[in-house]
Amino acid sequence: MSEPKFAVVGHPNKGKSSIVSTLAHDDSVAIGRIPGTTTRCRTYPMKVDGEVLYTLVDTPGFQRARAALAWMKQHETTADKHPAVVQAFLAAHRDGEHFFDECELLTPVMEGAGILYVVDGSLPYGPEYEAEMEILRWTGQPRMALINPIGPADHIDAWQAALGQYFSVVRVFNALKADFHKRTELLRAFGQLQGAWRAPLQRAVESLEQDRIQRRLHAARLVADTLSGMLTLKIEKKLAPNAPTETEKPPLEAAWRKRLQEMERRCRKAVEEIYDHRRLERIEAGLELLEEHGLFSAESLRLFGLSRLQLLGLGTLSGAAVGGLLDAAVGGASLLLGTLIGGGVGAASTLLAADQLIDVRILNMPLGHKLLVAGPTRSINVPHIVFGRARLHHSLVSRRTHAERGTLTIDEHLANRVRPLREEERRRLEKIFAQLRSAQDNGEARERLFEVVADIFAEDDLVEE
């Protein structure tokens, strides 16, 4: 049997195309606020690795359901002949204009597509929908009703009571907010409509779950590589022997900052493409990199940077480790003063380094030339802030449905969309960041950073909104 096919049908402007876009993971589906955006049937296959798992058919809305049902009732014989009457209706009116929309949406159904009937749960139920539902019942095809609340879900109970009389399965499904787990739950429900669909749809769910894991790993690799690149970034400029070095420092530092901006923005764009959001418009309110007043806004520092207490803890641990080497070297004769002093010095230096972005160094070269070197960063907070912003962006993008066409806004008010990092996760990250800052990384730290980021993204994915 070929892959399951579902015709998404209903009243005009009730979110049919949004349902198609969400379930097909396709942001090319035309969605409009004006009724009649969809005028012809169009198929959207859901593919993973080139294999079609199921197909959705976007259809125009019913326009003359009562008149169409009246025609069918005039030709009614017995219930077992209802599908034949629907076929006769199509044969009689397919080439005309009066029932064009009804013929267009019923054709894929009578060719074997399952029915997904979409209503808006934010609007009251009314008898005008009963002609549509009765026609769909006459087709004899497996059918499910989806209540898609476009606004406040004030009328869902009435809809469920009415729909349950016409459809074997009724689900509430918000096309704009349904996360990945809700979408796969719906696919499993589809499998209950017809026994022959159960196995292929279960396989579709498994394929989609594996595909999502691969996308998440791809995104984690991208974020980890971007973080590594930002932590080790340095740019150089060779100067003539008599060139004024001090006036050359600010432009070089500005160029370094701009490079960081570009790296972060490229990373965000690539993450969006990983999740097939290629037409996404994005606004970063308050989270842009600020060239004039520092690398990050104060709000980014507050939301994603380390607190003074955390910085002190990291500094004390690193300083104590150095002091411990002194104690060992003198056989303990220092009475552990090395550890205590090292801890204090480490804590103080860590607090200073947290806000110290980069140095622009001057190196002497042969023949009197000089080399200006900007970077890499000395700030302990930079990678934590960049990663925090990357987590927020990844969470918003990976959960975003393809029916959502509004601008993606990233600002501090959305920071609560990601769970707080556990202290153990934060310490694992800082250990790797410290190794990358040391410029002694041989690739091992990059790989471990990818593993930690992947673990954190996987934990994030388990947290429902």
TrEMBL record:
Annotated ranges, domain G: 6-90
Protein name per Swiss-Prot or TrEMBL: G domain-containing protein
InterPro entries registered for this protein in UniProt: DUF3482 (IPR021871), GTP-bd (IPR006073), P-loop_NTPase (IPR027417)
Superkingdom to which the source organism belongs: Bacteria
Keywords on record: Coiled coil
Segments forming a coiled coil: 253-280
